[in-house]
Every structure is written in C-alpha cells, then in structure tokens.
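User: tokens in, sequence out, please.
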C-alpha cells in the first residue's frame, strides 16, 4: 500500500514509519517539522534499509493547516491509506494556547480528511488519546465509556473525532479508525530512534531517563496518596513498537474489512495492564543499574489515580495485542537515551 503519514517525523510517527516500511508499504510523510526533525526520518530510513527521498520513503514538508501547500502532491501520490499523527500534544500548553490546539488538531484534521477523500484514500487512522475519557471512567476504560475532556487538548481530540465521523458520513468510501492511545513509551530496539522532547520533558518516562543519566537531579513524584497498591498513580504504559504495529494491523484490517462495509471504528491502544509510577522507577533502576532519586510532591492538577485500557475491542476484531514487557520498554528507552543523550541534535 501507499500510505500518507502526517506527523511522521515525530515520536510515534517515526516509529510507525519503520513498521510500515518493514511490512512492505511505501510511505509519504507530511510534516511541518515544527516539533521534530528530518533526522528522525533519516534514521527511520537507515534502520529499514531504504533511502529518504527515494520511492519507498519521502518527506513533504508542509503545515496540515495549509492544504494549498500539499493537496496537489497528495492527490498525485494517491495514497491507499492515511495515518494522521500530526498535531500538538501538551495538555498544559493547550491551556495557555487553546486557539493553536483547536487550529492544528481540529481544523488541521478537517483539512487532512478532506484531502484524503479527494485523493481517493480508503482508510484514515487518527491519533486520539485516552485523555478524551472523563476523570471518573470505570477502569479498565472501554471505548463506550463517557467522554469528558478536562482541557483544550482533550477537547480538540474529541472534536477531531467528530469531524472525522462527519467526513465519513459525507464520503462513506473513506473509512476511519480512531485510535485512543494510553501511555506510549520506549524506543526502536536499534537505539537509533526514540522520543526527543523539546525542553524539559513533561511526561514520566523521558523525565526519569534524564534523572538516570544525571541530566536532571531528581524526579518529582506527583502524589503518593492515590488509592492504588503503593499510593502512586497507575498508568497503562505501552511500548511504542507495539503501538506502531497496532497501526499496521489496523490499516491492513480496515483495508480488507471495510471495502464492502465502510465504517468508523474506535479502538483503545494500550496493554491493559496497570503499572504504578514507583514500579516504573524501580524498573528503570533495575535495567539501567542507576539510581533514580525522587521526592514525593503534591498531585499534578488534573491527574487521575488510575488509567488503564480495555483492549478487547481491537483484540477481538483486528487480532492485535501488545506483546512487549515493561522491561523491554525500559531497555529500549535506555539504549536510545544512552546513545543519544541530546536526542537527534547530534546527528
Ligand atoms: P510529536 O510531537 O513527537 O509528533 C507530532 C508531529 O506532528 C511532529 O513531527 C510535528 O512536527 C508534527 N506537526 C505538528 N503540527 C503540525 C502541523 N501543523 N502540520 C504538520 N505537521 C505538524 O508527538 P507524538 O508523541 O508522536 O504524538 C503523535 C500524535 O499522537 C499527536 O496527535 C498526539 O496528540 C497523539 N498522542 C500522543 C500521545 C503520547 O503520549 N505521545 C498520547 C496520545 C495521543
Ligand atoms: C504519568 C504519571 C504523573 C511526570 C499524558 C497526557 C495524555 C497523553 C499521554 C497525549 C502521572 C506522573 C509524571 C513527573 C510524575 N498524551 N509523573 N512525575 O499524564 O498519564 O498522560 O501523556 O495524548 O494526554 O496527559 O502521562 O507521563 O505525564 O504521567 O510523578 O515528572 O507519572 O503524575 O501519574 P499522563 P505522564
């Protein structure tokens, strides 16, 4: 298949590009590089033994909000499927800059969907988030749990889901799979690709990695008074390569099964296993042999005690399940971190 991957130079996008190439698909990445670098795609090309700019992998640098800069090229490429990762992803930043989040995540998604339909794509996968569920959804969280976002980022993802339902309503030949990710972590097993946050990381794993390398002195654990087995919060961490493989599986399944029955599917992408913040810290210490000093501080605003996915929907329909362990997540994250302490900036 020919696949258009928006945001393909980012963390989740670049790893998914490698699994698509390894599965034999050709990829055109559409990315403005606003929060990523071309180096990630050069590394993706390298680990897959293809050339960036060649027939199997190319980059179209453009803003998803400016279809006049990419629509013609996408129509010429005539992708069979589109994987739409491009977007802004910080809940905290979204409270400071809501308009940017609605513009890129909602209006940008509308433009990508319109161009995908115009180009004759049959399937569009969308990067949604567990953050669309309400704070008090029953755990494990099923796809039909009530949605109740608590910040502009979450609202923008839920609105984008609705945009895609409506586009499908008007162009039924374009089937849509909304993928709601839980907590992706880890890196490509080669150590050549990984998460490269700009500035101080806000998420747990990249921050813990900086503490383990000595770049940050200590981890602040945001709350140890949750009703969980050790008081720290529980999350459903999933290896980024499992998440990447979920995209290939979903894309192939949708292509085959929605040919005669166009559809909109909503699937959680998680492992279905809960891991506490303290358990994650201990796993990092065990794998790296480094101490991770930490201090318990107050809860972070908006944080919930437990988030964990029900994963039977995609398991039952597509047959995909996450298979990598917490140890693999930490081992691969650490290999990337040790070899690239400053991310892609050295390459
Ligand atoms: P990322 O920031 O690493 O990647 C996003 C990519 O989109 C970057 O390459 C960036 O340059 C590109 N981009 C941003 N705005 C753009 C625009 N206007 N036009 C074109 N390209 C643009 O983020 P990620 O972690 O890879 O996340 C990918 C998607 O998954 C996002 O939509 C995010 O909201 C969603 N998501 C991420 C997580 C997570 O924990 N990483 C969880 C749930 C959902
Ligand atoms: C995990 C746990 C923190 C950092 C976020 C977004 C969500 C989605 C995934 C995009 C929490 C604790 C963290 C630290 C800590 N992204 N923590 N010290 O909050 O589950 O989800 O990323 O869609 O929208 O909100 O992930 O990695 O930030 O936090 O104690 O320095 O680690 O309080 O309990 P979260 P996270």
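Assistant: Sequence out:
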């Amino acid at each position: 298949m020919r696949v258009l991957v928006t945001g393909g130079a980012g963390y989740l996008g670049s790893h998914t590009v490698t699994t698509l190439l390894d599965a034999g698909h050709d990829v055109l990445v559409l990315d403005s590089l606003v929060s990523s670098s071309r180096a990630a795609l050069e590394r993706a090309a390298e680990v897959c033994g293809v050339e960036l700019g060649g027939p199997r992998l190319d980059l179209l640098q453009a803003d998803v909000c400016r279809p006049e800069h990419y629509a013609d090229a996408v129509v010429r490429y005539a992708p069979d499927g589109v994987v739409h990762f491009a977007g802004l992803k910080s809940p905290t930043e979204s409270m400071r800059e809501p308009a940017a989040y609605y513009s890129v995540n909602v209006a940008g998604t509308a433009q990508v969907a319109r161009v995908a339909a115009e180009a004759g794509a049959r399937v569009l996968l969308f990067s949604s988030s567990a953050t669309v569920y309400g704070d008090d959804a029953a755990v494990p969280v099923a796809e039909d749990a009530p949605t109740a976002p608590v910040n502009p980022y979450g609202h923008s993802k839920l609105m984008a889901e609705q945009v895609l339902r409506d586009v499908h309503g008007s162009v039924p030949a374009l089937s849509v799979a909304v993928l709601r990710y839980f907590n992706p972590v880890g890196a490509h097993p080669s150590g050549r690709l990984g998460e490269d946050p700009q500035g101080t990381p806000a998420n747990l794993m990249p921050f813990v990695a900086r503490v383990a390398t000595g770049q940050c002195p200590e981890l602040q654990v945001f709350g140890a008074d949750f009703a969980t087995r050790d008081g720290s919060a529980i999350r459903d961490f999933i290896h980024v390569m499992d998440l990447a493989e979920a995209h290939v599986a979903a894309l192939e399944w949708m292509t085959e099964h929605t040919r005669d029955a166009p559809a909109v599917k909503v699937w959680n992408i998680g492992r279905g296993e809960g891991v506490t913040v303290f358990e994650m810290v201990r796993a990092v210490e065990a794998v790296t042999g480094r101490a991770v000093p930490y201090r318990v501080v107050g809860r972070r605003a908006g944080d919930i005690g437990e988030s964990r996915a029900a994963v039977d929907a995609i398991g039952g329909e597509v047959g995909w399940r996450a298979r990598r362990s917490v140890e693999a997540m930490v081992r691969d994250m650490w290999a990337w971190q040790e070899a690239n302490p400053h991310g892609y900036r050295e390459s």
